[in-house]
Amino acid sequence: MQLSAEGFRSMRAEQTFMKKVQQLLKKADLQLSLQNAELTVLTDGGSDRNFYRIKEGDASVVVMANTTPRFDNESYISVGSFLFKQGIGVPQIYAHDDEKQVVLLEDLGDESLLQLLKKAAGDKEIKTYYEQALASLAEMQMKTKNSLDDCGYLKGRSFGYEAFRWETDYFTECFLKRFCGLAIDNDEELDREFHQLAASLDSEPRYFMHRDFQSQNIYFKNGRPRFIDFQTATKGLLQYDVASLLKDAYFKLEETLRAELLYFYLETLQSKWGMDIDRENFIRTFHRTGLQRNMQALGAFAYLAMDKGKTDFAAHIPTALFYLRDALKQFPEFPLLRELLEQSEIKTRNTKL
């Protein structure tokens, strides 16, 4: 089997990588031979990591690799191992090298939630997929709530005020100023609005938070939702992951269906997990969190399109703007953000990448 040197700085780096893969396959006692296997380079979205599928007959494995020593997969390994032991639907980690640069993972297949949604027969099928994902999300949040500090990476991590402010700064710099070219004359007023938003979200209880719980990071294998890209997980509020999924810029949901799915999620927390919930407050916080999440997404789309050359991400900006504009209707306390949003919509219609 020959591996393309794409993503490697030299042929020597490629050869070192292949040697590590061979050693890890043997270590994990996986019945795969690199001489006879078929290799597929998998798409990596916005990630800097490389993913490969090695397949021989009915056996397959995914290789996750970093090609630079500046980064490793320690957080992925720590969080993934913790969730797997809890019975959560994440890929099994078979083996990794000592430097945590190369990791062998269970192959979850090719059926992401996004792909299934795009070919779904109608709203009923779409709703079923979302309900399965939300039920599994609730399970992940509730089963881990008393053991988060058992995960080395999660211990001491918390997504609170400073993290929310980092996200809104990211949105301001990457999307408003750089992508849209807006000059913000009233920085102090915008800072006040973002402070108010972050402070309100910071007061919420903390649970396991995936942090990027959207349709491209959820796969279905044997009819069961499975989760990937949890390496930036932290302790945070329940609504963040729910908003990430139900206000996902990759697949636009109509308001009625979104409300039904949020109701299903709340019913799951209450009936299956015995959680006492103030529904009105939860839903209002959900929409406030949606503001936060979609601003983060707009910052990321702008950064990936401009700095990483991944211009396809710009196509998702209109949906993220729609969700942001829609949520702002409920919150008159953010007038400057609403004004900037109107300006950005004009600018983005005329932006060519």
Give the gist of this structure.
The protein has 353 residues and is of the alpha+beta class. Helix content is 49%, strand content 12%.
Layout of strands and helices, then pairs:
Elements: H1 11-27, E1 38-42, E2 50-56, E3 59-65, H2 74-85, E4 93-96, E5 102-105, H3 113-118, H4 123-143, H5 161-179, H6 187-202, E6 207-209, E7 218-221, E8 224-227, E9 234-236, H7 238-246, H8 255-271, H9 279-306, H10 317-328, H11 335-349
Antiparallel strand pairs: 1-2, 2-3, 3-5, 4-5, 6-9, 7-8
Helix pairs in contact: 4-8, 5-6, 5-9, 7-9, 9-10, 10-11
Structural features, described:
By secondary structure, this protein is of the alpha+beta class. It is built from 11 helices and 9 strands. The strands form 3 sheets. Strands 1-2-3-5-4 form a 5-stranded antiparallel beta sheet, with helices on both faces. A hairpin with a 7-residue loop joins β1 (38-42) and β2 (50-56). α4 (123-143) runs parallel beside α8, α5 (161-179) crosses α9 and α7 crosses α9 (279-306). It is globular and about 60 Å long.
Any descriptors?
single chain, 353 residues, alpha+beta, five-stranded antiparallel β-sheet, two-stranded antiparallel ribbon, 11 helices, 9 strands
Order of strands across the widest beta sheet?
1-2-3-5-4
Helix content: 40-55%
Point out poorly predicted stretches. 1-8
Radius of gyration: 21 Å
Strand content: 5-15%
Q: What gross morphology would you assign?
A: globular
| Spatial separation of the terminal alpha carbons | 37 Å
Strand and helix order: HEEEHEEHHHHEEEEHHHHH
